């Protein structure tokens, strides 16, 4: 496993390793899950979700659900902004193996191991330096800011500045119908 496991090391009082979500007893091997988890480790949440959305593996769908749950836990329980989150750690541990047997030739039995795994995703807020670098990159591209609060505040500020200058359109009275019908008859 290449990423840090934060479930054992963070035992200091008052410190928190981030918001987590896990899926237990997933019917796939841990090695298949680790291939997908290696794609999204240390990425911001939006990029990680896009990668998982277009990854053509069954485990990508499961990992995407766990990532969405971790983001929901961070926004609901810790009041963090979803745009400022990144995948701090993600890992897949082996779960219990279901042992089955298949009949083989000459009365023998072949073993079948149906593996399971436990997938854990931990998200945390980016540091201020990382947020500043990401904001500078988006400004260099000319794209609008990715922070939703800033976009909404800018939009509200723009609408309040325009409000006094906007005039309501006047509605004109309909033309007299009798003149319209005579002009139509005269044209025919």
From TrEMBL:
Keyword Mitochondrion listed: no
SUPFAM superfamilies in the cross-refs: Ribosomal protein L22
Keywords, alphabetical: Ribonucleoprotein, Ribosomal protein, RNA-binding, rRNA-binding
Gene Ontology CC entries for this record: cytosolic large ribosomal subunit
GO terms, molecular function: rRNA binding; structural constituent of ribosome
Low complexity: compositionally biased ranges: 13-23, 158-173
PROSITE patterns in the cross-refs: RIBOSOMAL_L22 (PS00464)
Transmembrane feature ranges: none
Pfam families membership: Ribosomal_L22
GO biological process, any: translation
Family statement drawn from the similarity comment of this UniProt entry: Belongs to the universal ribosomal protein uL22 family.
Name under which the protein is recorded: Unannotated protein
């Amino acid at each position: 496993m290449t990423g840090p496991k934060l479930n054992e090391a963070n035992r200091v009082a008052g410190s928190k390793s981030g918001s987590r979500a896990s899926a237990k007893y997933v019917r796939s091997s841990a090695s298949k899950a680790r291939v997908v988890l290696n794609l999204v480790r240390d990425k911001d949440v939006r990029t990680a979700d896009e990668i998982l959305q277009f990854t053509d593996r069954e485990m990508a769908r499961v990992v995407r659900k766990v990532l969405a749950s971790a983001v929901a836990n961070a926004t609901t329980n810790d009041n963090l902004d979803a745009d400022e989150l990144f995948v701090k750690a993600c890992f897949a541990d082996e779960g219990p193996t279901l042992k089955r047997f298949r009949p083989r030739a000459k009365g023998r039995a072949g073993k079948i191991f149906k593996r399971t795994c436990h997938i854990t995703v931990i998200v945390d807020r980016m540091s201020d330096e990382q947020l500043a670098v990401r904001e500078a990159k988006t400004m260099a591209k000319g794209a609008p800011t990715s922070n939703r609060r800033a976009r909404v505040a800018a939009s509200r500020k723009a609408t309040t500045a325009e409000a006094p200058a906007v005039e309501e359109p006047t509605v004109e009275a309909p033309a007299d119908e009798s003149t319209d019908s005579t002009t139509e008859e005269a044209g025919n």
